[in-house]
Amino acid sequence: MDGGYWTRVEEFILMSFSSLPTEIQSLLFLTFLIIYLVTLMGNTLIILVTLADPMLHSPMYFFLRNLSFLEIGFNLVIVPKMLGTLLAWDTTISFLGCATQMYFFFFFGGAECFLLATMAYDRYVAICSPLHYPVIMNQRTRAKLAVASWFPGFPVATVQTTWLFSFPFCGTNKVNHFFCDSPPVLRLVCADTALFEIYAIVGTILVVMTPCLLILCSYTRIAAAILKIPSAKGKHKAFSTCSSHLLVVSLFYVSLSLTYFRPKSNNSPESKKLLSLSYTVVTPMLNPIIYSLRNNEVKNALGRTFRKALGLRNCIP
């Protein structure tokens, strides 16, 4: 507000890590650039291998391919702009650009929560009903489950982003974050946001906790089924089929919960930036690595793909 009038915000300034020395920002730029490239290459490789190798055409790898698409989208929305702010190329982001970034952040985030729940259900069916697994998880069912996983991101992103950016903004236009997340942008609003904050809290709890409860239910049943297997070898084999997913879920939900469900008194902007890095930058890089290192089928498929690629290359005169 200036002289009793609302000022129209045309653009925002992303503060990112501007409080750090230039040398540290340059180091962060190189680190995040490497992570970004590894993330894109790793997830793209997972997509290509699961499409090319007939041994990986099962429902589990169909959902893994969807997860890799999500991680690539998540990274493209957040990381390129963050890299630009670290080098101080352009720390500004337009009003529309900020709204678009927030929209797709909510969309991909909501979709990932439900996709992880779908992947847990897939493991539940595979372990608890192995004989009926091919019939239950047929192509039509897995396609419906994938659509159902992606869909919740649309209403969540549409309502929250449209509502937030319909508020008047005044005073400073500095967003104390490395991307347009809801809480730091909300602090710039010059209106009563109590109702929106209630909606945001309830919506976040539903989008995050509903899939989490479904995952817990699935793994409770999985654990009970594994305990009934008489041989240690059989138990280990059954657990190994879901250990990668369990690790990915743990990384995602722990970082997400620490970011959005901590008491405000313990949630400084700088600590939130660091926690946000874990699920927006680090976890998307780790997912393909976890599935590659802990899954023999993926490792074998990667080996076959590389050998085939090298063989074709050697045949070229």
Automatic annotation (TrEMBL):
Keywords, A to Z? Cell membrane, G-protein coupled receptor, Membrane, Olfaction, Receptor, Sensory transduction, Transducer, Transmembrane, Transmembrane helix
The subcellular localization recorded is:
Cell membrane
Q: How does it sit in the membrane?
A: Multi-pass membrane protein
Query: Which InterPro entries does this one have?
Result: GPCR_Rhodpsn, GPCR_Rhodpsn_7TM, Olfact_rcpt
Write one Pfam family the protein is assigned to: 7tm_4
Domain G-protein coupled receptors family 1 profile: where? 42-291
Q: Which residues cross the membrane?
A: 27-51, 63-83, 103-124, 145-165, 198-217, 238-262, 274-293
- Protein family (similarity comment): Belongs to the G-protein coupled receptor 1 family.
What the protein does comes down to: Putative odorant or sperm cell receptor.
What's the protein called, per UniProt? Olfactory receptor
Source organism of the structure: Vulpes vulpes
